[in-house]
Amino acid sequence: MSTKYKATAKEEAFFITLTTVGWVDVFTRLNQKNGIINALIHCQQNKGLEIYGYCIMSSHVHLLCRATHGFILSDVVRDFKKFTSKKIIQTIIEEPESRREWLLDYFQKACIHLKRTQHYKVWQDGYHAEYMYSNTFIKQKVEYIHMNPVKDKIVLVPEDYYFSSARNYAGLENDIEVILLDLF
């Protein structure tokens, strides 16, 4: 895999997008969103992940983040994707899901071209990491992250979307603690 969009630098902040294969809408269910939240919190507590902005959409997750304490963001993302893939499949199998058969079949078929044996593929390869090189660029990406649910007409204002750091920036309750940036 190319390192062009890979976060291999230590202690640097990146804007990353993690996308499900085929842009499948996995995160339409609360249990799946909670799985992502719990995994992000785990990475914050155990893998040096600092989050400055995030948004969980139906088929992808945006993060403005960096790895600290000697961790490398590409390793944190790899572990996050591996863990959440298993958790997503487990949740589809064990909890009520009207699309169970279709989702499992889709994620199985996504593995056909892989060289190593794998039963399900949930995430697309890579995560398109963009280095945060200026305050202007950071502000642009935070606004982009927060406007995603508005653009999709899920909410009218960013802070009304519960699964986004827009709530943190607005001083509202949220499940994930983020480091607020003073850019506004």
Verbal overview:
- This protein has 184 residues and is α+β, with helices and mostly antiparallel strands.
- 38% of the residues lie in helices and 13% in strands.
- The chain has helices at residues 30-46, 73-94, 100-109, 135-151, 166-169, and strands spanning 14-19, 49-56, 60-67, 130-131.
- It has a 4-stranded antiparallel sheet with strand order 2-3-1-4, sandwiched between helices.
- β2 and β3 (60-67) form a beta hairpin.
- The protein is globular, with a radius of gyration of 16 Å.
- The termini are far apart.
Order of strands side by side in the largest beta sheet? 2-3-1-4
> Span from first to last CA?
36 Å
The biggest beta sheet, please? 4 strands, antiparallel
Mean pLDDT: 92
What's the helix count? 5
Helicity level: 25-40%
Which structural class matches the secondary elements? alpha+beta
* Dominant shape: globular
- Sheet-strand content, in percent, reads 5-15%
**What is the number of E strands?**
4
Order of helices and strands: EHEEHHEHH
Compute the CA-based radius of gyration.
Answer: 16 Å
